[in-house]
Specification:
With 354 residues, the protein is an alpha/beta fold. Helices cover 27% and strands 24% of the residues. Strand 9 (170-174), helix 6 and strand 10 (194-199) form a beta-alpha-beta unit. Helix 5 crosses helix 6.
Length: 354
């Protein structure tokens, strides 16, 4: 089969790799039908995630069909259409018992495309399949469902739930890429007074408006002042960092109100300065997190009911064997207008921003 292989910082290729096989009785083999590229994959390619070894197939999000299962798998069988979660869960360790699957100590957590071969391939082996794949309702299309493998649970859990968004809040989301846009849409489920999006790219700010942002700000034009003006000088109740660079994290800490909450979602490859000399007396809460995906069943039900605008985030589609071109388009989002790039189904390519 073929897969997209990381060979070291700046080096990757769509090439022949060994077919996956069942290694443990809890494994499932999935034929990949739909897959997507994550901002974390770009961080890996830049060398920001040193645990990823050269020779690893990338990718941690997919929709596909079960083709083989180990002897201990009970919840799915060959022929089932499933969502492959970005997080693998053993279901037995302390953290899994607390639904903190991202911290699994039984051979799970974020392992696909990280510690073992991932989903950007024709087939993928999924360990601990009973808690790591989700049967899909027929009402949810593949290109919609694949966005529930990572970006929607991440935005919802690490941003909205950890940030404790409440009715009447002012919420600022710094970074209007796919994660930031998913944070905007899921924050609105909690009836905030206003949601403000901050980004550098006009097309992403326009997408933020379409998906429910009440105001937008160019990151180069003093967004702190806009937040101050809208909140009578207090600052935002909740600020979500959805970029992953020191400058945006530090911006978030300047935009939050006393006793407010900064929820860091972005993947950081460099140190950021924590200005405790300014923050220590302001009762600010800062949270970080790797998604646990405990919300995936809820989000699947909402998607099936038409309550999540997943398809509005998909701007480009490619056949699976155009993986390198898809990466190029996604990596140059400022020029291409890419939000979420999906490969596999349907077998055509769209290049217009929706």
């Amino acid at each position: 089969m073929k897969g997209y292989v990381f060979h070291g910082p700046g080096e990757s290729a769509w090439e022949e790799v060994p077919d996956p096989v069942v290694k443990d009785p809890t494994d499932a083999i999935v034929r990949v039908g739909t897959v997507t590229i994550c901002g974390t994959d770009l961080h890996i390619l830049k060398g920001d995630v040193p645990e990823v070894r050269p020779g690893t197939v990338l990718g941690h999000e997919a929709v596909g069909e079960i083709v083989e299962v180990g002897s201990d798998v009970r919840t799915v069988r060959p022929g089932d259409r499933v969502l492959v979660s970005c997080i693998t869960a053993c279901g037995r360790c302390r953290f899994c018992r607390e639904a903190a699957y991202g911290q699994c100590r039984g051979g799970g957590g974020w392992i696909l495309g990280h510690l073992i071969d991932g989903t950007q391939a024709e087939y993928v082996r999924v360990p601990h399949a009973d808690l790591s794949v989700y049967p899909l309702p027929s009402a949810v299309a593949g290109e919609d469902a694949v966005l529930l493998a990572d970006i929607f649970p991440t935005a919802y859990e690490v941003g909205v739930l950890s940030g404790r968004v409440r009715p009447g809040d002012t919420v600022a989301v710094v970074g209007a890429g796919p994660i930031g846009l998913a944070a905007i849409t899921t924050a609105r489920l909690f009836a905030p007074e206003r949601v403000i999006a901050v980004d550098l790219v006009p097309a992403r700010l326009e997408a933020a408006r379409r998906l429910g942002a009440d105001a937008v700000a160019d990151a180069r034009e003093a967004p702190e002042q806009l937040i101050s003006d809208l909140t009578e000088g207090l600052g935002a109740d909740v600020v979500m960092e959805a970029v992953g660079v020191p400058e945006t994290f530090e911006l978030c800490t300047r935009m939050v109100r006393p006793a407010g909450h900064v929820a860091n979602i972005g993947v950081h490859g460099r140190p950021a300065t924590l200005h405790l000399e300014d923050l220590w007396a302001r009762n600010v809460t800062i949270t970080t997190g790797l998604v646990d995906t405990h919300s995936t069943p809820t989000l699947l039900r909402m998607a099936a009911a038409g309550r999540l605008p997943t398809s509005q985030l998909v701007t480009h589609t490619f056949p699976l064997d155009e993986m390198q071109e898809a990466y190029d388009v996604f990596a140059q989002a400022g020029e291409t207008g890419a939000l979420k790039v999906v490969l596999g189904e349907p077998q055509h390519k769209e290049v217009a921003v929706r």
